[in-house]
Amino acid sequence: MHRLGVITIWAGIVSSLVGLVVGFVKLPTGSEQAIGFWLNFVPIGFTLLLLGTGLTQFSRRNGPKRGD
User: How far apart (Å, rounded) are the C-alpha atoms in residues 35 and 67?
Assistant: First the structure.
């Protein structure tokens, strides 16, 4: 579960960044559908970040245990 959490965090970061960059680049075109489509990736990315953080915090990492 820890690895899935890390992957989800990275997916959230990439989704948020792509949505912000492409959405703001499309602003001068005036196409509201294209702008809205790309900017909708920002809340999706934020949700993925929260999910990934929760997964990594509530799972134990598969590594050597302390005291070994």
Answer: 53
Identify the burial level of 48 via C-beta atoms within 10 angstroms of its C-beta, where 0-12 means exposed, 13-18 middle and 19 or more buried.
Answer: buried
What is the reported pTM?
A: 0.79
Compute the distance between CA of residue 31 and CA of residue 37 in angstroms, rounded to an integer.
Answer: 10
Rounded CA-CA distance 17/22 in Å is: 8
Residue range 34-57, pLDDT digits in tens:
888 999 999 999 999 999 999 999
Q: How far apart are CA 15 and CA 48, in angstroms?
A: 9
